[in-house]
Amino acid sequence: MHLDLGAGDGRYAAALAKADPATLHVAVEPNHASTVEASRAAVRGSPAAPNPVFLLGSWSELPGPLPEASRITVLFPWGSLLQAVATANPELVDRLRAVATPDARLEIVTAIEPATDRSELRRLSLDGFTPEAMATAWRERGFAVEQTALDPSHAYQTTWWRRIRRTPGRTATLTQVTLPGQAPPVRRGQRRSR
User: 138 and 177 in contact (C-beta within 8 Å)?
Assistant: First the structure.
């Protein structure tokens, strides 16, 4: 199963479900209005896609009635989800462990531009946020972490990314979190950094 937390409009999860019908794709989003169109489109398809599931909720409500996830994505988080992943919040870590397979990987993609996003970072007490600081927080919790700078045409083409990438200076960073001893995958076209 693939679990997408903070799924926004759900179109990314729906597209993955269509491309990979053998995998269950679960999109979790606290804003009901955001995912209505994607969930309706999934059942209207010809034939209807049986593998995307749209759940109203947030990370703080996991695990819920979910099978184990081998892949968990958090793409361009904002609000409490950004705060939780940026600090490797212990409650988030526990909840992710409860729904993850032993070999699961967590993919966090951030695209924070400090000047533009200053007020939200201040509101969340994340004034010094950087992808490197987030990686350090996850390492301090005992996880192996790798970061990769993504080019604008990366594989995580969400509706939100297509909107925010126009901001000058905004770049995307993939932070892959794996259990100790596991080697994270590297995709072609990505630059690896440490």
Answer: yes
Count of CB atoms within 10 A of residue 46's CB? Answer: 5
pLDDT in tens, 86-109: 999 999 998 898 888 888 999 999
Neighbours of 53 (CB within 10 A): 18
pTM across the whole model:
0.86
Q: Which stretches of 20-126 are DSSP H helices?
A: 32-44, 79-86, 90-99, 118-123
Find tokens 């979910």 and name the residue.
Answer: 66
> Going from the N-terminus, what domains does the chain have, and what CATH number goes with each?
58-193 (3.40.50.150)
Could you give phi then psi for residue 82, rounded to 5 degrees? -60, -45
100-110: strand order across its sheet: 52-56, 25-29, 2-5, 69-75, 100-110, 172-178, 144-150, 191-193
Six-digit token string for 125: 């007490």
Q: Residues 150, 190: contact at Cβ < 8 Å?
A: yes
pLDDT at 181: 38
pLDDT surpasses 90 at 134: yes
Please give the pLDDT value at position 155: 92
Q: Which residues pair with 175 in a beta bridge?
A: 108, 147
Q: Do the Cβ atoms of 26 and 2 come closer than 8 Å? A: yes
